[in-house]
Amino acid sequence: MSLRAFSRSVPRTVSRLSAQSTRASVFRPILLQSACKPAPAPRLAAAFSTTRRRYAESGVVDEELVAKLQQEIAMEQEMRDSDNYSGNIKEYLDGSPYKLVDAEGHEEVVLQRTYNDEKIRVTFSIADLNNLENDADSMQEGDPAMQDEDSADFMEGQSGGANTKGAINQGRTSGGNIKVAPEDSIAPADRPELADEDPNQEPSFPARVNIVVEKKNKGALAIEAVAQDGEMVIDNVYYLQNAALADAKTAEKDWERRGLYTGPPFGNLDEDLQVLMERYLDERDINAHMALFIPDYIDFKEQREYLRWLSNVKAFVES
């Protein structure tokens, strides 16, 4: 998780802890007093004021809110490097055959290109980074024992499967994943496609990627994958005879797609078929370089959109 995401989660955690301590110090003495003292006689007069409050009309809250928003804007501007792309992002966009489509104020980002007679679209969203921050808050509030158990289950579930990119000597485990022979377990730093990467680079967060490869009058392949730490891990591969269903953004198209048989789970496919599907994407430049670019761009775009949101809210409250 990025430093910015951690810094945002700390004030929320501190406020929760202070609220809990306040409740403990205020309500417990009251409960003890109520147990020792007789109940007071009922009041006949009204215990509330009928005077109309004018606090909201004075605009004090507006001023405090604007000041707080300005403080957040200043902090975000101080933490970011610049308004321009980082070196990694610029290098990828300059050398990639994909065109970047990024609309201001929208969560989704699209990389698109033409390859022979195919139209390829790779879609990802900054919502993954926001969901990661929410998951971190939930882990902080949960049971530590449950956190350890969830972490162990996650690590166990990550062994094998399509994570072993380009492995040769493989065998299938009882859970349907692919077990990799020791000689095929190649460290990321030793892979040729990542030879130029910084070995001290921090692990990235998992980013969901939707890939659509469309051919005219032949339908489309819709591929669900995850980009993380320089790997494009395939989750599912669907074939859709109607290419319009690949991006099912309306309720009607989504309902129509749900009733179709689109293929088995990717992990249930033959091992060689899985490897060939990965090579199929790699040939279309959906590879390790794209898997490194996507989390970086999500982090860049999320910060830019957050700053825009802060500025828009501040301008609205000030007007």
Strand proportion: 15-25%
- Largest sheet, order of strands side by side? 1-2-3-6-7-8
Low-confidence stretches: 12-36, 151-185
Helical content stands at: 40-55%
Number of strands: 8
The major β-sheet equals: 6 strands, antiparallel
Radius of gyration over alpha carbons? 27 Å
What's the pLDDT, averaged over the residues?
A: 74
Describe this structure in words.
- By secondary structure, this protein is an alpha+beta fold.
- The protein has a domain at 97-129 and 202-300: Mitochondrial Matrix Protein, Chain A (Roll).
- The chain is 45% helix and 17% strand.
- It contains eight helices and eight strands; from the N terminus they run H-H-H-E-E-E-H-H-E-E-E-E-E-H-H-H.
- A six-stranded antiparallel sheet has the order 1-2-3-6-7-8. Strands 4-5 form a two-stranded antiparallel sheet.
- A hairpin with a 2-residue loop joins strand 2 and strand 3.
- Helix 1 runs parallel beside helix 4 (127-141) and helix 2 runs antiparallel to helix 8 (288-318).
- Residues 166-176 have a biased composition (Polar residues).
- InterPro entries: MAM33 (IPR003428), MAM33_sf (IPR036561).
- One of its GO terms (biological process) is cytosolic ribosome assembly.
- Residues 134-153 have a biased composition (Acidic residues).
- This is Mitochondrial acidic protein mam33.
